[in-house]
Amino acid sequence: MVQPSTDQIHVLVVVSEEYDYVPVKEVTNDPNYKEELTRYQQRGELIQRNCEDYCQQILSKIDALYALSDDFALPFICVEGSSGMGKSQLAFALGGSRPWFYWPTTPIGDYSQRLYRNFSSISDAFLNVTNKDGPTKKFKKDILNSRSKFYKTESLWTFGFIHALLKCCSEEQNQQGKMIRFQEKTSLYVEKCNREKVVAFRKKMKTDGKVLPFFVLDEMMPNMNIGGGGMNLAAFQRNVFRVCGLVVIVMGTDAKVTDLVDQSVGSYTERHAWMTVISRFPLYQSIPFANKDKQTAWNHLQAKYPILQSIMLNSRGRFAGYFADSAAQYAMENFAYDIKLCDLLDVAFNHVGSETQSRKNFMEEQKGKDAQLMAISYTNVNGTSPRPCKKRKIARSVGTYCMHLHFANLVDDQATEVDVLNGELKVNGKPWLPRCCFPDIREDMLLYLAVLGGKTYSGYYDHRKGVNHSTRGIFSLYWRGRGFGTTHNYYAYENMVAHMFFCASRRNGVQGIPFDDFFAGLLSECQDQIRPVIMTDGNTGKTIVASDILDKYVDLVALSHSKIPFLAPPNAEWPQCILDTRAEGCNFGHLVRARNDQKCDIFVCNTEDLTEPPLFLCECKYCDESVDFGGVNKIIGGLETVWKDKWAVALVFCVKLAAFENEWNREKVGCVKVDCRSGRVDWVFQPAEENRKKLVIVMETGDVTELP
After folding, report:
1. Where exactly are the structural domains of the chain?
2. Is the pTM of this model over 0.85?
3. Beta strands 680-685 and 535-537: pairing type?
4. Distance CA 396, CA 158 (A)
5. Contact of 298 with 331, CB cutoff 8 Å
6. Regarding beta strands 415-421 and 424-427, do their DSSP bridges make them parallel or antiparallel, or are they unpaired?
7. Highest taxon of the source (predicted)?
């Protein structure tokens, strides 16, 4: 630099880069996005009108939070539920006295929901300012603890963004009780600032008689990029509002958002309010189709088959929407024909299942497969469901991943007040953690009617990869790494067999499946992957079917010509409205895991009266050694004692049947064994034709712990 002379002064000008103009504008040029937004707005209005008490509870909570002292970081509201329950829909139903902002916190891309794409601009803007502040690179304790020095002293771009939104809200036209949307291009002046500047403007709004807004952050997922600080990012996005004394509602499927807490730092250890958890949602609100022909078709269907409305009203919103859309489309395409309910349901159920899995992709991940297994097991359902009949240890909750990857929900009531004490979450003074369970069959019918498998696809079919997993293959993967010992895991073997029945029963849709086809499906479920298995006579090599085994057994003629019903999950009971569809050609039935005193493990009923004679009984024997004559004889003795004349055929599942050293001593009971892997059938004892009264079919599965 040239040295200045006595009459020359050089001035160094530093241009501040502590501000920016952030453009935001709602996407309005895509008719599909706009149509989706309109539907959410319409449903939001219906919820406000039809579920007034529900909405008012949340609005009153917001007012109560704003009435708290300014000295504390405000508690927040956490709306948690699995996909399709109506979380985002709720964001459009909170019109009261306050305005509010809404946007998703996850990056919006080509695979995002159409609704979210309307808000991609403000969502991207929020992500950009939070990333500029670098919360993922900070110490976890500083980000999670809302009382840390970080929030008190740091100048942040996100504070500037919030300040800009408050200024926008303070304008008279935005002081109404509705969502503030940027339908016209708006340039937000965002200046990096500290918390005090935001708090000062918030106080000024109150002094000026302005109404403070609340903020709804949708799709908050701490697990996203967890290795790169995903938990820090989620906690930061939530806490920057709280420390400014602003009410924030976070929504998502990831339960980790509830316990991103580190409040034990320093001497502040007294109990204080942490959050309100909202985990129950209004019923699905039906709105007319935009296509008038489709609405006409749907109206015609509902008038003809009232069961359709019952299914919709007792299912989560997203499933109900898929269901109605598919059914109406089917009706439009088949109006010239007599539409049968069973055909209509099969088509609609398939659409619900395939759409759900193609969007959720839960069968791509091992934990997603595990969650599907647990949903079919139906042992981890909410408190309205009866306990399983079998006396076995049952966990009432499942891992929270079952909510994020699948369709479980929090076990908590509608509104749960959670406190913090010494960094631990408490409810009514007792420790609290997010725990999940699956909904009852009466609350989410389409989960159990469609998503768990049907006519077109098995419950374990991976739609994305086109892999038709078998029940055996899924259970082998589930047991891998968990350990499977014969001493304590015979219940798990029994559960696997129940799943085989469940999946095989659905292969012909809701009209039920012929016995021969059901039995063939049962064998294919015992392979490493679904494949057809040809049954052969062990003596002649001749190809046979299951009904050939029943030949000349007079009491089994009806079974050989019967249909196995479309089964509910084990010990779940179809609502009466579902069973009543038998009058329209449907055939729904029950899969029962029996009580200990019933001397069997599983039985299948095609009537709602579970005291009626079952179609068949099943016993499961998983042990290191082969099942011998004594074991089979004991099974028969138990059935004779309890079931007497109500049983005619029993399936005994075991690893292998031993060669009998003792002579068979039951002249009127036949015994045949089936190698489930190869399909080979060998008779152990075939009574004389006039003595063929009852039959035991031993199903040899082989060692199910062997991995393919």
Report:
1. 19-278, 500-700
2. yes
3. parallel
4. 41
5. yes
6. antiparallel
7. Eukaryota
The phi, psi pair for 340, rounded to 5°, reads -90, 140
The b-or-e profile of 436-469 (16+ CB within 10 A means b, else e) is: bbbbbbbbbbbbbbbbbbbbbbbbbbbbeeeeeb
Which residues are CB-neighbours of 92 under 8 A, at least 6 positions away? 40, 41, 43, 44, 45, 47, 102, 179
Determine which helix (DSSP H) or strand (DSSP E) holds 425, and give its type and residue range.
Answer: strand 424-427
Q: What is the pLDDT of residues 650-670, one digit of tens each?
A: 999 999 999 876 678 899 999
- pLDDT tens across 240-279, in order? 999 999 999 999 988 777 766 664 344 456 788 999 999 9
pLDDT digits (tens, 9 = 90+) for 550-580: 999 999 999 999 999 999 999 899 999 999 9
Edge-to-edge strand ranges of the sheet holding 649-654: 543-544, 535-537, 680-685, 669-675, 694-700, 649-654, 616-621, 602-605, 588-593, 566-567
Phi and psi torsions of 625, nearest 5°: -95, 160
Phi-psi region of 542 (alpha: psi -120 to 50; beta: other; left: phi over 0): beta
Question: 3-state DSSP call for residue 483?
Answer: coil
Separation between Cα atoms, residue 343 and residue 586, nearest integer Å: 9
Out of 43-52, 203-212, 339-348, 420-429, pick the least confident.
420-429
